[in-house]
Every structure is written in structure tokens, then in C-alpha cells.
Amino acid sequence: MKFSLEQIANVEAVILKQVRAHPGISRIALARRLQIAPSTVGSYTGRLISEGFLAESEKTDFEAGRPPTALRLNPDGGQFIGVDFEARNIMAMAVDFSDKPLKHAHSEIHKSDTVRDIVSKIERAIADVLPDNHGRLLAIGIGVPGLVDPAKGMAVYYKYIERWKEVPLAAPLAKRLGVPVYLENNVRSMALAELWFGQGRGLSDWLCLGIRSGIGVGIVASGQLQHGADYRAGEIGRWLCPASSLPAARFFATGKTTASLELQEVSSARAILGALERARQAKEKSLLFVRNQPLTFADVERAAHQRDGLTVRVLEVAAEGLGWAVGQLALILNPSRVILAGPLTLLGDTLLQPLRERAQQLLRASGAEAPTIVNSTMGEYSGALGAAALAVHEWKPAR
């Protein structure tokens, strides 16, 4: 049977994914995994080697007869770029064909930036990490905040960027750079990074709770990232939180009752900074207020590690909201692990311990066990790495 060019590209993409997941695999083992004839695998892998996508070497642990050759990704096969952004920051990263990070870039988004300004900054971030030989760029992945339609390459809506609605991102960039561009929600990009490189690797059912200006959750079930019917799975930032009885909860109210606050208005990085600024206006005492300057999250991190009283009390309110959310998610999805991602991971046990305690309290009352709750260890570029990995896994050799 003669395959079409598209079918050939699909088979080669599957082979590359298998080698990526099992570096050093032999042609025989690859044929068994794919359940196709070794001669067919040999034909495909030979072409991928000649095109520079795969490399081979003899297995060193083979004793009798002719040693089989081990297939590996060729780092020089090309490069992929991942971009991750939210209301305040844009992160970009380039990786080689074997997923090794090569370059990264960071820029800030300002409140005065228009949609066009932000798109231009995304383009500049990509330019900053482009390979010297642009012909080696194979694909780009972009982690987009809020609602996204990957099929249309469209950023649909994000609450924290003014007029960010139905923004076409994929097609203009693909036309300009001459490579495929793939979109994904940025929290799901963080989940992809954990799935392929981090604490979700090898697990079947777990969650990545992304907390930045907004809050969302990447859901992995049976080893697969979930999108939902309209790519809206995991939009938990709009959940209404139960009212907190903690005294510092009053600093989170912005003309609303505490009973009507959304989760992202209580537990996001933006909400924490806003609560501390309102505490400053209320003449509360804190190490944070020694300098009369706008607060940054780095200030909050330092104060938390110094056990500043006001900072700890405000973080307890945020942790209570997150613990409640984890409890609801655990009852619905029964994950084995919840991985926190974003700047709040820098707060360590100051946030993590009360979060765990709140989740355990809620789940014990329901007769359920709390999942393992941990901080991501992948750092601030995890979303960009996940977006690059998205490009890696969606890309197919051109035929």
C-alpha cells in the first residue's frame, strides 16, 4: 500500500516522538512498539537520519553477535521556540531538537500597552531567541493567558489585559516567520512542561495549578492533557470563594463583600499585592512599608522569608482560598498530585503549609484523602519550556 505524503509525515512524527520518549531505542524495539515491520521502520529512520533529525550509535551493552544501533535525536536537527505570557511578563525560550534549552528572553508588559504593543513585544521576544540561521527554526508554541482557541490560532479573551479579545496570533506569526505556530492556554503550557520534564512525568492523573495574575488549572487524566469541549477546561479563577474569617481578609475586598470574591481576587499574585497595598493605606505595620514605593512580588518573597507578620497573615488568606480550591478539585478529579506553578512557589512553606492544612481539613470532612501538594521546581521559564514542547510535539517533518 502506498502512503500519501501526509501519512508519511504522520508516521515519521510518531517515530520521532518514540525516540524522544525512549532515547537509545533500537530499530527492532521501535518496530515492536509501533507494530510495524522492521524493514518499514528502517526505511523511515534512514530518511530521518539522512535529513539530520536522528543520529545513531552502537549499543555498548550488547554482548553477542552484531550490536544493534541506538537511535537518538540529533540536537542539530533544528530549533523550536516557546513563548509564555500573562498580564505582566513575556518569557521566550529556544530549545534544540533534543529539547535542550539554548536561549531565553524576558520582557515586561505595562498597563499602558495596547494589544498591538503586546503582540509586537511577543514578536521581539521571538526575535531575541531566534537561531542565527533562521532556516533551522522549525515551529513556535505560544502559551496564551485566558481563553484560547488552538484550532483557529486565536486568543479569545483575558480579563487582565484591556481589549484582549479575539486576537489572531498564530496565522500572522506563521506567515511572517514561515513556520507553524501553535497556541495553548498558558497554564496548560505549564502542565506540559511538568508532564514532559517535571514532577508530572510518569504520573497518570494529576493537576498543575498555575497562579500568576489569574489562576487556572492544567488537568492531566490518564496521562493526557485535557482541553474540554471548547478548550475551556481548568478556568477555575472565576470560582466564588467562601468568605474567610481571617482578620486579613478585609484587605482583599475592593468594594465587594468577601463572600462574592473570585478565587483569583483572593489567591493570585495580583490579589496578594493588592491586599498588601490596601493594608499600607490602612496604616498597618510591616517591613514592606519601610520604603514608600510600589510593591513587587520580590518584596513579598523577602518579607515572607523574614516572617513579617502582616505578610504572613495576608498569605494565609490566599492559602486558604487555594486550599479550598484544591479540595474541590480533589473531590471532582481525584488527582494523585497537585503541582503549584508560578511566582507563589517562591514563598515556600509560608504559603504551602497553610494551603495543605486547609485542603486536608476540607477533604477529611468528606472522608477523602488529600493529594500530594508540591511546588514546581522548574522556575519562571516553565511555561515557555512547555510552549516549546508543544511546538516539538505538534510539528511534523515536511513532505
Structure in words:
The protein is an alpha/beta fold and 399 residues long. The protein folds into three domains: 5-73, Orthogonal Bundle (Arc Repressor Mutant, subunit A); 77-196 and 382-394, Nucleotidyltransferase, domain 5 (2-Layer Sandwich); 202-375, Nucleotidyltransferase, domain 5 (2-Layer Sandwich), CATH 3.30.420. It has eleven helices and 16 strands. The protein has helices at residues 5-21, 27-34, 38-50, 115-129, 170-177, 186-197, 269-281, 297-305, 309-333, 349-365, 382-394, and strands at residues 25-26, 54-58, 69-73, 79-85, 89-96, 101-108, 137-144, 147-149, 154-157, 165-168, 181-185, 206-211, 215-221, 224-225, 337-341, 372-375. A five-stranded mixed sheet has the order 6-5-4-7-11. Helix 1 crosses helix 3. It is globular. The model has no long low-confidence stretch (mean pLDDT 93).
